[in-house]
Specification:
This protein is an all-beta fold. The chain has a domain of about 260 residues: TolB, C-terminal domain (Neuraminidase, 6 Propeller), CATH 2.120.10. Helices cover about 5% and strands about 35% of the residues. It contains 2 helices and 26 strands. The strands form 7 sheets. Strands 2-1-26-25 form a 4-stranded antiparallel β-sheet, with no helix packed on it. It has a 4-stranded antiparallel β-sheet with strand order 3-4-5-6, with no helix packed on it. A 4-stranded antiparallel β-sheet has the order 7-8-9-10, with no helix packed on it. It binds calcium ion. The site of calcium ion has 7 residues, from loops.
């Protein structure tokens, strides 16, 4: 199992456990609670709050987005007819609201469309959608395709689309798949695969390239922000510092947490975590940036990057980067300011992503954690 893109159905919230909430307790005191009691979803891959609203949306792998309000779910977007969600790591993989959603009612998605030009019948597609009903839903007819990439293999399709504090759209694309990056995409700056990209959705046609991108004007495709990534499934920005935290899914041995900076090479497929790749390779010198943290496949199988917690509801996690593993369900945390020594703080199941409650403007500390998680027992109950 190489990807979080699997069926799961329960949205859970990370909450402080009262039994262990004293100041002296270790951070291993976080419990999961059902976030949307009574609601079940079809393979939820992302949960995020609508900016400026109390609504949350849940992105479902099959090509739908549900809006949750007042204990009920309603269709927010349905593009199933445009999505090939059959392979395990394919589908509607991520959504981001425009920072000025309240004014322009725009949102952006990353999904895999069917494609006769792709050996895998998958075309990674980054699109803009707009609401034409005041924000109640996104209008499928409004789709503007911004960027497409044919996928050579079924797996490693990335998934996140996230706006940075700079107002630019960041998106992750995996190395193209199979295993070991056989086409060498991640180290090839003439490919968009195996990269974190950054584009300006508010200028250009269909988008603009920020002049501050590291390869603007040469030495690589101009959309590239960072490279040497295997499958940057989930990443986020620290609300306090602006740092970009990314979980890069590993091959057979090591999962890693990267702090991403522009133009940096994160090593794949010459390194897996801090180790030479393939295993047994004695030398892998190069201008590679090692992860800030890693864990072996003794502890998990597929990292799900999370968030730096800047809320108040779970004091044990304050200032910590919180992330998990889809395979083992472990949830870890370490201080974002270091030392980057992970401590397991919770236990989930089939964690496809984390999410957060957006604080009201200026009251960042009121954020609370929510995570997308699933328990197999709950999945069984829902069928
Ligand atoms: Ca790496």
């Amino acid at each position: 199992m190489r990807s979080p893109a699997r069926a799961c159905c329960l949205i859970a919230v990370l909450a402080a456990c009262s039994r262990e909430s004293s100041r002296t307790a270790p951070p291993s005191s976080v419990a999961l609670q059902d976030a949307f009691s009574g609601l079940r979803f079809q393979a939820p891959l992302q949960v995020l709050q609508v900016p400026g609203e109390t609504r949350f949306v849940v992105v479902e792998k099959r090509g739908t987005v549900q809006a949750v309000s007042g204990g009920a779910a309603a269709t927010f977007l349905d593009i199933r007819s445009r999505v090939n969600s059959t392979p395990g790591e394919a589908g509607l993989l991520g959504l981001a609201f425009h920072p000025r959603w309240a004014q322009n009612r725009q949102a952006f998605v990353n999904y895999t469309a069917p494609s006769a030009a792709s050996n895998a019948n998958l075309r990674s597609t980054i699109s803009r959608f707009a609401s034409t009903d005041g924000g109640a839903t996104l209008n499928p007819a409004s789709e503007q395709v911004l960027l497409t990439v044919e996928q050579p293999f079924e797996n490693h399709n990335g998934g996140s689309v996230v706006f940075g504090p700079d107002g630019l759209l960041y998106l992750g694309l995996g190395d193209g798949g199979l295993g070991g990056d056989p086409l060498g995409n991640a180290q090839n700056r003439s490919s968009l695969l195996g990269k974190l990209l950054r584009i300006d959705v508010d200028s250009g046609t269909p988008y603009g390239i920020p002049p501050s991108n590291p390869f603007f004007g040469g030495a690589g495709l101009e959309e590239i922000y960072a490279f040497g990534l295997r499958n940057p499934w989930r990443f986020s920005f620290d609300r306090a510092t602006g740092a970009l935290w990314l979980g890069d899914v590993g091959q057979g041995d090591w999962e890693e947490v990267d702090v991403v900076e522009p133009g940096v090479n994160y090593g794949w497929n010459r390194r897996e975590g801090r180790h030479c790749y393939p295993p047994g390779t004695s030398s892998c010198a190069g201008s590679f940036r090692d992860p800030v943290a890693e864990y072996s496949h003794d502890e998990g199988a597929s990292i799900t990057g999370g968030y730096v917690y800047r809320g108040a509801a779970v004091p044990q996690l304050a200032g910590n980067y919180v992330y998990g593993d889809f395979g083992s369900g472990h949830i870890w945390a370490f201080p974002a300011s270091g030392p980057f020594t992970p401590v397991q703080v919770g236990q989930g199941n089939a964690i496809s992503s984390f999410g957060e409650e957006i604080p009201p403007a200026g009251t960042m500390t009121s954020a609370r954690w929510r995570s997308t998680a699933a328990a197999r027992s709950a999945a069984a109950r829902s069928r």
